Amino acid sequence: MSDAQKVADRRSAEPPGANSVDRFFRITARGSTFAREIRGGFATFFTMAYILVLNPIILGNAEDKYGHTLNGAELVTATALVAAVMTVIMGVGGNLPLALAAGLGLNAVVAFQIAPLMSWPDAMGLVVLEGLLICVLVVTGLREAVMHAIPQPLKQAISVGIGLFIAFIGFVDAGFVSRIPDIANTTVPVQLGATGSLSGWPILVFCLGVLLTIALLARKVRGAILISILAMTVVAIVINSVADIKSWGLTTPKVPDDIVAAPEFGLIGDFSLFGSFGETTVITVVLLIFTLLLSDFFDTMGTVVGITAEAGLLDDEGKVPNLGRVLLIDGAAAVAGGASSASSATSYIESAAGVGEGARTGFANLITGGLFAVALFLTPLLTIVPMQAAAPALVAVGFLMMTQVKNIDWDKYEIAIPAFLTIAVMPFTYSITNGIGAGFLAFVLIKTVLGKAKEVHWLLWGTSALFLVYFAIDPIEQLFGVK
């Protein structure tokens, strides 16, 4: 069947009564409704709004080579602006419920590895270069080809791994589990709560939120995730008004004195595209770009596959709809993030919260992006949702994404072992890229020892070689004097 015929078939499947917005986003055609898309947009925003606080903290507390720091208020504006614009563009151009904002992990690399070697404008220029390279890989078709080369079982494993990862993020961010400071290396790495047990009002809010969310999901209540977030936020505000608790974390459930805050655009456009080459060696710049690019490349790949799989949008061959446009917009987000001094922006796995709420199209992004735009002026008001109220949504979404594990053939070891490593390494190392790399390397190795090396797509060989470099990046950087 030709592409034109496929398009005609899809159009014929759209109900005749659908309005222009419905037809553009294919809301009814994908089995969704405007109400579900709106709820999904709100749910995604509330689960990722923490970035408005966390990104300025990470970037604002770091100094560049010359001892300069970035202004916190300007970072909030840059973070919100990039998230708003790129999320809307993804919704309109990619038509997927996939929100974007400054990438965690990537911002830490910029703050603590790149900035100490050069000025802030030079560091952000490096991010812009990385984003431009991503766009080149998309335009040449290489990035899309890599995604198509991944076997379907590994795509399912990526989705399951992201589910466990996002659930673990929820448990950690809520304080339900915490890292154990252990100089002697004599205990397990994490424990229940801060002291080995559950205590404190914030933890109670989280536990109640989990119970409420799973109860609503079990009863198939529409809006279960969003209802839980809003209800627990109200509970947290009431508790905090009585007890004035200091242990909520980044955001405190307290109605602010000043609701409106004027945005400050001082950092927008403050970057130097090639300034980094005058600050350090060429090999250092190349390795830094490689570190950013590989992490951005595969984090996005895993997120896109995981979100679309959970939304039921993959076709029979496991391909993502509008993939080329989606990847190009994601690359452009990295450019926009660097050009705005917000660090590289990327697709967010928290978008799964919106999918869990029923979002299936880019219309949900208009809501999420609109809320980030509102945050430019109402940041104090929109950051009163504590992580303990939003984290239950991540746990619930982890469960929903975990259900895809049944589609993996666990009796076929050449698939099962790479799938297991993909699933396990993501949450255990707190990295989507690490999980994908472990799965790729295991898949290539097992196929080779079984005499089936010819079955491995050449792009998987190439990306596996890159992952070998990625996993050995520290000794390589030490060899070339980067560290």
From TrEMBL:
Location within or outside the cell: Endomembrane system
Signal peptide: none
Entry annotated with the keyword Membrane: yes
Pfam families associated with the record: Xan_ur_permease
Keyword Membrane attributed: yes
Membrane topology value: Multi-pass membrane protein
GO cellular component assignments: endomembrane system; plasma membrane
Single GO term (MF): purine nucleobase transmembrane transporter activity
Entry keyword set: Membrane, Transmembrane, Transmembrane helix, Transport
Similarity-based family: Belongs to the nucleobase:cation symporter-2 (NCS2) (TC 2.A.40) family. Azg-like subfamily.
The protein, known as: NCS2 family permease
Organism for this UniProt entry: Streptomyces ipomoeae
